[in-house]
């Protein structure tokens, strides 16, 4: 049996502040053994969600109100190091994933065994699939309703979510148009199988869309907002769907918009704009996780993990800054072991 330490460290949001580093503290905490029905996990990797973490520290996540002090960090993968009475589904040494606010930015985690997802290994690739891959698959199936033969355009296609959307849409038989912001990112998305890749910083998207996709896009999947969202609405096809899965361009001031009353564009096409937030679709998560893990094991999915070297809880602010600056290629992860 692994010898357990007497204490472990976790990040606690102690107060709201404009700077993430001013809002949090790394707290040394006594390690308790799991109670009946619980497991104790040594976290190996945690996901970094820069926009969410930054806004949570500033008390600007309206849909998830918190009162400091509160543990933060969401998705993590690790190894079971102790089990409580009555736990038969997991054993010491098993690898598990967990996704809930407060689970990620900590070295050890005690959770109900039923809340953990058994995985093959605690790797950053599997961390990316759960929950980011779950978001991509559920969004494509339940909201975008992508079908074979349709054309989809995806913004931020080289990000943690976007690179999985590209592959999953292609696996469903769609023609995939991907947008990215650097030549390196465009090359990476091309290798993932996108049929057309465009650098939105250097190419005239409107002209290219009109010339190459005159009928518009059946699905336009956007996480950026701003001018990209406006362009997607303009180029959505008859009976097409524009998916709003975030709006980083406007997130600080959502009241400032470049276009209003989009029904003037949607009505004549019988098109629609649909919002997607993964936590509101919990009934689809378990099935999506099973299928994603199987696809990954079968070699159908490649997972891009950002090459940034972020080790230990002290690296979280630096990882968030890396993400907010748009320097990431793939999922940004934190190494905890």
Query: Any idea of the CATH topology of the largest domain?
Result: Rossmann fold
How many DSSP helices?
10
Query: Class of the largest domain in CATH?
Result: Alpha Beta
Distance between the termini: 18 Å
Shape: globular
Q: Indicate the radius of gyration in whole angstroms.
A: 21 Å
What is the beta-strand fraction? 15-25%
| Class derived from helix and strand content | alpha/beta
| Helical fraction | 25-40%
Determine the CATH superfamily of the largest domain. Answer: NAD(P)-binding Rossmann-like Domain
- Domain count: the total is 2
Q: Which spans have pLDDT < 50 for at least 5 consecutive residues?
A: none
Mean pLDDT: 95
Main beta sheet, described? 6 strands, antiparallel
Order of helices and strands: EHEEHEEEEEHEHEHEHEHEHEHHE
The CATH architecture of the largest domain can be named as 3-Layer(aba) Sandwich
Number of strands: 15
């Amino acid at each position: 049996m692994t010898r357990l330490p007497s204490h472990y460290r976790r990040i606690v949001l102690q107060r709201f502040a404009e700077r993430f580093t001013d809002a949090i503290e790394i707290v040394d905490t006594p390690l308790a053994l799991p109670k009946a029905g619980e497991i104790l996990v040594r976290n190996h990797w945690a996901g970094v969600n820069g926009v969410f973490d930054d806004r949570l520290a500033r008390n600007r996540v309206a849909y998830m109100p918190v009162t400091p002090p509160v543990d933060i960090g969401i998705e993590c993968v690790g190894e079971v190091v102790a089990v409580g009475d009555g736990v038969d589904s997991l054993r010491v040494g098993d690898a598990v994933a967990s996704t809930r606010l407060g689970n990620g930015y900590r070295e050890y985690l005690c959770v109900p065994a039923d809340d953990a997802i058994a995985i093959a290994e605690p790797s950053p690739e599997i961390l990316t699939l759960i929950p980011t891959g779950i978001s991509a698959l559920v969004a494509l199936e339940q909201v975008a309703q992508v079908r074979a033969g349709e054309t989809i355009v995806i913004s931020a296609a080289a990000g943690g979510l976007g690179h999985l959307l590209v592959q999953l849409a292609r696996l469903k038989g769609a023609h995939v148009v991907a947008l990215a912001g650097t030549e390196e990112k465009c090359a990476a998305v091309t290798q993932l199988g996108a049929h057309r890749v465009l650098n939105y910083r250097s190419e005239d998207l409107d002209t290219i869309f009109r010339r190459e996709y005159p009928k518009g896009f059946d699905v336009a999947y956007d996480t950026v907002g701003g001018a990209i969202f406006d362009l997607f609405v303009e180029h959505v096809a008859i009976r097409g769907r524009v998916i709003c899965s975030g709006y980083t361009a406007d997130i600080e001031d959502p009241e400032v918009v470049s276009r209003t009353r989009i029904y003037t564009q949607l009505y004549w096409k019988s098109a629609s704009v649909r919002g997607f937030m993964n936590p509101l679709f919990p009934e689809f998560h378990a099935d999506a996780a099973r299928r994603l893990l199987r696809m990954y094991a079968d070699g159908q999915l490649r997972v891009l993990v950002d090459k940034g070297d972020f080790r230990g809880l002290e690296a979280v602010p630096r990882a968030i800054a890396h993400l907010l600056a748009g320097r990431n290629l793939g999922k940004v992860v934190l190494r905890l072991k």
